[in-house]
Amino acid sequence: MAREYKLTSKPPQSGSSGIDYQAELNEQQHEAVTSPPGHALVIAGAGSGKTRTLTYRVAFLLDQQVEAKNILLLTFTNKASREMLERVKELIPQDTSELWGGTFHSICNRILRRHADEIGFTRSFSILDSDDQKSMMRELVKNADVDTKNRRFPKADVLLTIFSLAQNTSSSIEKIIQESYDYFNEWLDQIVGLQRAYEKKKLETNSMDFDDLLILTLKLLREDADLRSLYQRKFRYVLVDEYQDTNAIQCALIDQLVGESNSLMVVGDDAQSIYSWRGADMQNILNFHARYPDALVFKIETNYRSSPEILELSNAAIRANTEQIPKELSAFREIGSMAPAVIPVSDPRAQSNFVAQRIEELIGEGLEMSEIAVLYRAHYQSMEVQMEFTARDLPFQITSGLRFFEQAHVKDVAAFIRFVVNRRDEISFKRMVGMLPGIGAVSAQKLWQAWLNLPVAQHDDPPLSFSEYLLELKVPKKAASQWEQLCYTLDELVTRDGYQSPYDMIYSISEGVYDDYMRDSFDNYEQRKQDIQQLMQYAQSYTEVDEFLGQLALMSSVDGQPNGKNKQAKQDEESITLSTIHQAKGLEWKAVFIIWLADGMFPNQRVMETDDWQQFEEERRLFYVALTRAKDQLYLCYPMTNPRSYTGEYVVNPSRFFEDVPPELLEEWQVQGSTEW
């Protein structure tokens, strides 16, 4: 019979925070933050202090002698995770370096870097971004027996979207095509075949895409009981942000990590679930009790952002939805200076004129441009506003601009590092050699095949000298000198102990070959050179090249704020924000203009034609998100005619969302005057 031995509780640490949680939090926040271990669903309304609640929950757990290494914080952006962890460090003196916090993708990347060899990959696998995926897919289509000349075949990015949607919703390719791409039915067999070829190619090249990070981690946890037990023992307390945005895979991952005994707190707002088009399933939050019957439910309904007038309108707007967790946000603030304004104007030109002129007036009254936003349902709806702002010399930024880590020159430099780390990375190899004169797609393919035939290409450890092998390969005469320099540059990236630091790697690549390439290839050489210098500064915070490459890929496609917040903040101080509502979620401004609030524009025409009530309710949630971005002033605009209508019907009906709210909650403005540019 085994002897029983009981561990005693640790004495309180001298570094306890001393936080007065009751004083720092409102009653609803305090109840959630200090709740006992177990399962909990926190419904945090817009502007109610969701981040504060999660941050203080982490601090509270640490104050209760929970070790940082036993806490897992899952978010949807690195920015959110970074902000929360920084706030925790400010609140509590304990060392939090062992706490795992990050996006689903980054956490799964960390797990796979430890266990990828158990599923046929090596731990130095590459992460494919969207351009890499398209390049691989185009090659697969080219090599497949598909007649793309006589009949329309879906392009690479469409195929990848189909594959991704199938994975993230745990659906078959057949179902996705039937429901969303029925015009590709004739290609169903070929598409299914390409999906299999794509999976095979990724394994051959030791590469994963972003969906694989989640899918393969889930596969590991489901199939390996010992591994699952290892991480369940490690993560005794799991916290999840924006739970309403989780898809089927993310929800299953959470279940696997929590198991039967771990504590789980999920925070979210079903009223802000607006991403079903990319696989998010609101049923995860609506049916949380079905997964965890013993879960406690906390509602945080005090809004600290918006004026009471804006909040009353927002509550009325979302109340019309039938599928939701009932809640009623109350305003912490006192009565504001104006009621939400509805502005019907004659046409799109008058709409843009009004927006621009009113913004000029607000700026004249002392409102900073960074506190003003123009929101819209679809990006093309901003065209007239962009033209008017340009004519009036009003500075603006569009949030859908190219991200720092997606720029060609940044990806070029990353290709050198990725190839050195993963010698089976075909995409990076071809991108790298494709920079040389005289080397096109055919030559790059020949070089790749020649490289694969060398035994060193299959080794997981890097060779001390790449040039010893690569200089034996035949290249076009015009590329000979640059090829030699490229080979010697690759030699500089490795040491006898492994790899140079990411910072030193980028320096060697730039000085060895890439600075000359930029000078000869781009007309904005100085600007691109500064970008590479900025990349080097970013790399200084990393000592391990695998971690650097993982974050580089994740930041290019998962986050929306790549190069830190300082550069973006500087832009915000100097310009007005133009944004789609989807991209504006989580942000706030003192004055918000919502434009094109007309049937067919918002709500979207496609949704209106489908007569799908669930899709329409998501459109209403999107409207709710737009309303709740405003702090002080809210302007709801729509043109009464649309000369650009493709149907020839110039008369525009106001958005049917107006029918959901009592008229007395709005103040109508009558706009008069010229609509000339």
Question: Can you walk through the features of this model?
Answer:
It is a single chain. This protein is 47% helix and 12% strand. The strands form five sheets. A seven-stranded parallel sheet has the order 13-16-12-17-18-11-19. It has a six-stranded parallel sheet with strand order 3-2-6-7-1-8, with helices on both faces. It has a two-stranded parallel sheet with strand order 4-5. Strand 2 (71-75), helix 4 (78-91) and strand 3 form a beta-alpha-beta unit. Helix 10 (210-223) runs parallel beside helix 12, helix 18 crosses helix 19 (426-433) and helix 18 (408-421) packs across helix 23 (502-521). The longest helix has 20 residues, at 502-521. The model is unreliable at 558-572 and 645-649 (pLDDT under 50).
Total helix count?
29
Kindly report the average pLDDT value: 88
* Helical/strand content category: alpha/beta
Beta-strand level of the residues, as a percent range? 5-15%
Estimate percent helicity: 40-55%
The largest β sheet comes out as: 7 strands, parallel
Strand order of the largest sheet: 13-16-12-17-18-11-19
* Count of distinct strands: 19
What is the CA-CA span between the terminal residues?
90 Å
Overall geometry: globular
Radius of gyration: 27 Å
Q: Low-confidence spans: pLDDT under 50, at least 5 residues?
A: 558-572, 645-649
What is the element layout, followed by pairings?
Blueprint: H1 21-24, H2 27-33, E1 39-44, H3 50-63, E2 71-75, H4 78-91, E3 100-103, H5 104-115, E4 126-127, H6 130-143, H7 156-168, H8 173-180, H9 188-204, E5 207-208, H10 210-223, H11 225-234, E6 237-240, H12 248-258, E7 263-268, H13 283-286, H14 288-291, E8 296-300, E9 302-303, H15 308-319, E10 330-331, E11 341-345, H16 348-364, E12 372-376, H17 383-391, E13 396-398, H18 408-421, H19 426-433, H20 441-452, H21 467-470, H22 480-492, E14 494-495, E15 498-499, H23 502-521, H24 525-539, H25 545-557, H26 565-574, E16 576-580, H27 581-584, E17 589-594, H28 605-610, H29 613-627, E18 630-639, E19 667-668
Parallel strand pairs: 1-7, 1-8, 2-3, 2-6, 4-5, 6-7, 9-10, 11-18, 11-19, 12-16, 12-17, 13-16, 17-18
Antiparallel strand pairs: 14-15
